[in-house]
Amino acid sequence: MQAPEVVARLRAAGHKLTPQRLAIIEALAASHTHPTAYEIYDQVRQRFPMLGLATVYKTLDVLKGLGEVVETGFGAGGARYEPNLHPHVNLVCRCCGRVVDVDATLAPGGETGGNLLAGVQAAAAQAGFTVQGGHIEYFGVCAECAGKVV
Q1: Where are the domain boundaries for CATH 1.10.10.10 in the chain?
Q2: Where do you find CATH 3.30.1490.190 in the chain?
Q3: What is the DSSP letter of 104?
Q4: In this structure, is the dihedral angle defined by the CA atoms of residues 139, 143, 149 and 150, taken in order, positive or negative?
Q5: Which of 145, 34, 27, 146 has the alpha carbon at shortest distance from 100?
Q6: Model confidence, pTM
Q7: 3-75: which CATH topology?
Q8: Of 77, 30, 37, which is closest to residue 54 (Cα–Cα)?
Q9: What confidence tens digit (pLDDT) does each residue in 77-93 have?
Q10: CATH homologous superfamily of domain 86-148?
Q11: 82 has which bridge partners?
Q12: Contact yes or no for 12/66 (Cβ under 8 A)
C-alpha cells in the first residue's frame, strides 16, 4: 500500500480526507504487520489524542470498500487488516499470532521465476476472472515460539 496513491483514489471517489484519516492510511502503509483496528487506533491517537475508535473503523470500512485493504481473521486476535494486496503467502504463528508475508512469486526452494499462484491465475482466466491480488494462509509456529515450546 502506497499512501499517496490511496489518498488520490479516496479523493477521486469523493471521500473527504481529514488529518485523522490520512494518519490512519499512513499507519497502514508503514505497517509490516497485519494490524487490528485497535493497534491502528493506539498508534494514531498518539498524534491525535481525541481520535475515536469509530473513526478508525469507518476509515477501514471505506478502504475495504475501495479495495485498498482486506479484512482477515488470524486466530483469536480478531480481525486484522491486510494492506499488502500483492499475491503472497501469510505464515501465521499459532502461538503468538505473528504474521509473516512471503512473496508468492518465489518458486519452491527459493528460486525466483516461478509463481505459486500460477495455477489459480490460469483457472481464473479460464473462468473469465481477472485476479488482482490475494493471499494464502499457512499456520504453524514461528522460530521464536518454537524455541519456547517445551
Answers
A1: 3-75
A2: 86-148
A3: T
A4: positive
A5: 34
A6: 0.72
A7: Arc Repressor Mutant, subunit A (1.10.10)
A8: 37
A9: 678 887 777 777 888 88
A10: Ferric-uptake regulator, C-terminal dimerisarion domain (3.30.1490.190)
A11: 70
A12: no
